[in-house]
Amino acid sequence: MKKIKTLVLFCLLALTTVLCACTDDKAKNSDSITIGIAQDIDDSLDPHKMVAAGTKEIFFNVFEGLVKPDSDGNIVPAVAESVEVSEDKLCYTFKLRNGIKFHDGNAVTIEDLEYSINKFAGRSGDEPVSSAFLNISEVNVVSDDTIEIKLASADPAFLSYLASVESAIIPKSNTNPDGVCIGTGPYKYVSRSPLQNVVFEKFDGYWGEGGNIKNVTFKICTNPDTIAMELEGGTIDMCIHMTNGQKMQLDKEKFNVYEGTMNLVQALYLNHDFEPFNDVNVRKAMNYAVDAKEVMDYVSNGSGAKIGTSIYPNFGKYFDESLTSVYDADIQKAKDCLSKSAYPDGFDMTITVPSNYDQHVDTALVLKNQLALIGINAEIVKVDWDTWISDVYLGRNYDSTVIGVDAANLSANALLSRFTSDAGDNFTNYDNPEYDAAFSKAISASDDENATKYYKECAKILNDDAANVYIQDLPDFVALNKNFEGYKFYPLYVLDLTNIKAVK
Amino acid sequence: MKKIKINNQKKVGLIIVAIMIAFVLFGFLNRNSFDAMNKDLILKGSSFLHPFGCDEFGRDILKRTQMGMGISVVISFFSVLIGTFFGTLIGALCGYFGGIVDDFFTGIINVLFAVPSLLLALVFVSLFGSGMVQVTFALGIAIIPSFAKMMRSEFRKQRELEYVKMAKLLKVPTARIIFVHILPNVTETFINCIFIAFNNCILAEAGLSFLGIGVQPPFASLGTLLSDAGGYIRSAPYMVFFPALSLVVLLFGIGLLSSGESFHHAYSKRFKD
Questions:
Q1: What is the DSSP code string of B91-138?
Q2: Interchain contact, B37 vs A298, CB within 8 Å
């Protein structure tokens, strides 16, 4: 009897072991892909209220504006089939794309356009998503498929503001845009499980070519240490924004690693309301003390692009190469600057970093050592992403933080507007009348050349004033399982799913 | 009062723990800095100057392991101190007096028991922020319930024994009965509890640090060392190996110290006496 019992037990054990090896083969077919992302999508589902760059990045596939950017940085028509600009550059006429549908199957009407424009431009009581939209003087429905937007003053970058998730077209009939997600993009939002995943599905009624993969699952991987293991183990097929360390662990036989830049301005952002940071000498000293090249060496094995101000190199005409070398590391100069301030022997400060971003934590570690050379004692405080958003970004209750700031659209305005003293997203509390003046000149400039000139001036002021300790545009590594191909980098912080397809 | 018997297991345990403490103390002689970075030493393996190798910033892993273990041990020590003090106090009061005092505290402790101790620590850390002091308190509080339960049952048993009844008849003050008469008689359980709690604390601290809410960088505990190194397990396995080995050896030593006689065995023997 006892023998039989033992035998049965042994068989059961063997069976369990064998069955454990069975994986769900269905998950591996070409119809679905699982993508690892570093943070949960706990923003509002209303595109006009989305805050986190990581949210907007993936909802780029769900929402479209009247126009949208392509991977070369051009602005192409989206919900609008065509756009005409009047000669005085004050009137933009958009023609609604014929037959375009929302994800719920309803056709997009001209009322939806009017409603959306009024909503994101702050004309129906809400805050405008960008101060640039305050420039809109009139929104007129001309006919069933034509709408015109009139501006108070010409703005050459106006179309680029519209080419963003923030200025997406959403249905008027949706009474709860915060919780119900309906857009016009190539993928539709299906579900979200907090701290687990977000699921998208290919939208068959899309007006354009649409995606190749039917089901897309974004898996929330908040622990950066397990990402390489998850890729290797096959629980995720793709991961965006990987660090050099994570990249090194991958098997080159199984993964293609794409290298680009993240299109972020990574800096040690300083809270100008914090006592020593309101002194320009302190800020300059910190800029001289920090060696961006060394940060890159440690954090990403030397890759990365120096910036020097709040513009990254992919911004082409706005980017001023000469600003990158203004604060080349020089400990003597740093000490000289610090001795002119009220803190000649340094001071104590904290650096708050979101713990789910290895790059920023590692950068903060290197910065701590560099700042120690001039007597500044930095203490690192790791917080989770939600705390970072609520305390640092929205609450502005911090000394300094290492983070990457993205651009919502392809105009310099998107990167620079947050440093005007009255901007709602001015989380550094930067307040400089000279900057405000230059910025208002830039947004009211009549032609592109003048606007560019003033935007560059703004960027120069940020650099001269050492507003923050600018470090780099981080290198971006995207790992894609060899079962898939076609990832494309954008000059913006977006992930376009439509390019990705399964290898036959 | 019974003497604690030093058996062979305890002897070996004592030697191992002594060696590990010496290992930590030797860290003060190690001239490498725990946070000095060096570009030339990034992910370099063992060498004469850096026997445990170097991490992704070129920092000496030996020094970091020594410091990390020191921090882990200090945190665990103070957590156990907090847990033991309040746990024993509550347990003793409940066990000795019984009745309404017992019902009240046992109720609270049962509620605390229903919440996993890691969750309890997480709540504490989210309320008071993360850092060494907070983690110490969080772990200390998490220990209290189990300690109190253990002590309560011990005191309940003891209060029925002859010597306590005698002491009561002789009008010995209650506090004296509890702490001078009974406490020395539960030493064995008490010591075992301490070692088990210490063991759990080191592991829980490693767990908390692994979740990123313990010790803040560039300081490290064994937990953060392991979690940071986890990513490099393929390219630089020694980064995981040495801290993990030290942790295992330390826990093994403490485990041996706390073993020896099982509780059950100890009780049955006592009643026979």
A1: HHHHHHH-HHHHHHHHHHHHHHHHS-HHHHHHHHHHHH--SHHHHHHH
A2: yes
Q: Are A165 and A63 in contact (CB under 8 A)?
A: yes
B242: domain CATH number is: 1.10.3720.10
Closest C-alpha among B238, B91, B103, B110 to residue B178: B91
- Residues of chain B positioned with their CB less than 8 A from the CB of A362: 56-57
ipTM field = 0.73
Report pLDDT digits (tens) over A441-498.
888 887 788 888 999 999 999 999 999 999 999 888 999 999 999 898 888 888 999 9
Looking at chain B from residue 141 to 200, which residues have their Cβ under 8 Å from any Cβ of chain A?
none
Distance CA A84, CA B30 (A): 72
Best mutation target among B42, B56, B130 (most A Cβ atoms within 10 Å) is: B56
Q: Do B216 and A361 touch (CB under 8 A)?
A: no
Total-model pTM: 0.78
The partner residue sitting opposite A249, judged by closest CB among B218, B228, B234, is B234
| Domain A34-42+185-261+476-502, CATH among 3.30.70.360, 3.40.190.10, 3.40.50.2300, 3.30.43.10 | 3.40.190.10
Residue in this structure with the two tokens 């090194």, named with its chain if needed: A248
Task: With beta carbons under 8 A apart, name residues in chain A contacting B35.
Answer: 365, 368-369
